[in-house]
Write a structure and sequence with these properties.
By secondary structure, this protein is mostly beta strands. The protein contains two helices and eleven strands. The longest helix has 20 residues.
Length: about 200
């Protein structure tokens, strides 16, 4: 009986998602769904591993034009104090606060990215060229983006949703963040996963 019920539930959910996926999300202004998004970054650490951390407060706003994606616009704001390193001895060193707030690191200054040009490179791929402001300095940066799909009405949240994956890299020294190079790698790579909802949606 339990096995049949579980199968029925799985079948019902898969059918609901399939029906919802049939209609794409409409154009309009979208924002990050923080419970279904992540921003991870990493760099080479002494040639032994790629040290990886993340930001937990990322607010992206997308003016979505599904008929002509290249005319869409994107802006992102990241709170540097939301950096999370999972440092194992917080009672000894507040490592997150040090990286996010110290002048020699992120200096507690907002990190922003504003798109300038969007290019469609494939059926579901594109690049976003824009200006990245880090530690108060602004320079060009590029995102490689994959459009994962959209729904006119997500079956569990009841609103339109859009999903993207993105990757990119920067040379941190270009933003004046040259601490411990080359022991700590100059190239910082990042990986983004996000679902977005209409900008007027309330998570409360």
């Amino acid at each position: 009986m339990l096995r049949i019920s579980a199968f029925s539930l799985a079948f019902a959910l898969s059918t609901t998602f399939a029906l919802a996926a049939g209609d794409p999300a409409p154009g309009g202004t979208y924002k990050t769904d923080p419970s279904h998004s992540s921003f991870n970054w990493s760099f080479n650490h002494s040639g032994l591993s790629h040290y990886t951390a993340r930001f937990t407060k990322v607010d992206a706003r997308l003016d979505w034009k599904p008929e002509k994606p290249e005319t869409s616009t994107l802006s992102v704001t990241i709170d540097p104090l939301s950096v999370r390193t999972d440092y194992p001895w917080p009672e000894k060193v507040n490592f997150d606060q040090e990286i996010g707030g110290e002048e020699t690191f992120l200096a507690a200054k907002p990190i922003t990215f504003v798109s300038k040009t969007i290019r469609v490179t494939g059926e579901k791929t594109g690049t976003v060229d824009g200006l990245l402001t880090l530690r108060g300095e602004t320079h060009p940066a590029t995102l490689d983006v994959t459009f994962n799909g959209s729904m006119a009405k997500h079956p569990m949240m009841g609103v339109a949703k859009i999903g993207f994956s993105a990757t990119g890299s920067i040379r941190r020294s270009e933003w004046g963040l040259d601490f411990a190079i080359p022991e700590l790698g100059n190239v910082v790579t990042f990986a983004i996963e996000t679902q977005m909802v209409p900008a007027d949606y309330s998570f409360q």
